[in-house]
Amino acid sequence: DTAVSQTPKYLVTQMGNDKSIKCEQNLGHDTMYWYKQDSKKFLKIMFSYNNKELIINETVPNRFSPKSPDKAHLNLHINSLELGDSAVYFCASSQDSPGLGELFFGEGSRLTVL
Amino acid sequence: GQQLNQSPQSMFIQEGEDVSMNCTSSSIFNTWLWYKQDPGEGPVLLIALYKAGELTSNGRLTAQFGITRKDSFLNISASIPSDVGIYFCAGQLSPQGAQKLVFGQGTRLTINP
């Protein structure tokens, strides 16, 4: 059973389009995240949700809108895609007990904007 | 903001060699973690360190949480082909979980046959 699963794994689209990436975790974790990994492999947090509530919203364009229908799901919708949005987007989850900071990542969704 | 400097950026070694990489920060962290990313996969946690001075092993991997709380290192002994990948350090200040985890730039490990 996949712990953190995200779809699609690959996404190729034209500039200006709107696209969504879905994420689900079956670990019973309270917190979910979206990370962006650029071509240099740098991992940067975008959003964090705890029990459906937005906790972290880093400096991300308004074109990116996360949605958490329940604590097991966190989707990412991107409007008006730009070339610079091309990257691998990772969903992750964690159980945030004190002293526990361990993330479980999905396999990533590679977005290519043409 | 908080930044982690991870070095080296890349390593090319022979199978069987030992590997050492480290991470330094300008800020104090309460938790240090080391992740490994295989090609086409998401990062996977290798070792988590929660106390300054802590030395923890996971098989051939050993990691330490620096006394100053501003650094950590990861050693891999007797490297094997499946050790190839990108290794990330990550630091966290908040005691309440993985929120605001800061990642290093990664160390890409290549093993020559």
Architecture overview:
- The complex is a heterodimer of chains A (114) and B (113).
- Chain A has strands spanning 4-7, 10-13, 19-25, 31-37, 43-50, 53-57, 64-70, 73-78, 87-94, 104-105, 109-113.
- Chain A has 114 residues and is an all-beta fold.
- In chain A, strands 2, 4, 5, 6, 9, 10 and 11 form a seven-stranded mixed beta sheet that branches.
- In chain A, a hairpin with a 2-residue loop joins strand 7 (64-70) and strand 8.
- Chain A is globular.
- The mean pLDDT of chain A is 91.
- Chain B is mostly beta strands and 113 residues long.
- Chain B is 0% helix and 53% strand.
- Chain B has strands spanning 4-7, 10-14, 19-25, 31-37, 44-49, 55-58, 61-65, 71-76, 85-92, 102-103, 107-112.
- In chain B, the strands form two sheets. In chain B, strands 2, 4, 5, 9, 10 and 11 form a six-stranded mixed beta sheet that branches.
- Chain B is globular.
- The A-B interface holds A 4, 31, 33, 40-45, 48, 50, 55-56, 90, 92, 94-108 and B 31, 33, 35, 37, 40-45, 48, 50, 86, 88, 90, 92, 95-101, 103, 105-106, 108.
Radius of gyration of chain A equals: 13 Å
Structural class of chain B: mainly beta
Shape of chain A: globular
**Oligomeric category:** heterodimer
Q: Between the first and last Cα atoms of chain B, what is the distance in angstroms?
A: 40 Å
Helix content of chain B: under 10%
Shape of chain B: globular
Structural class of chain A: mainly beta
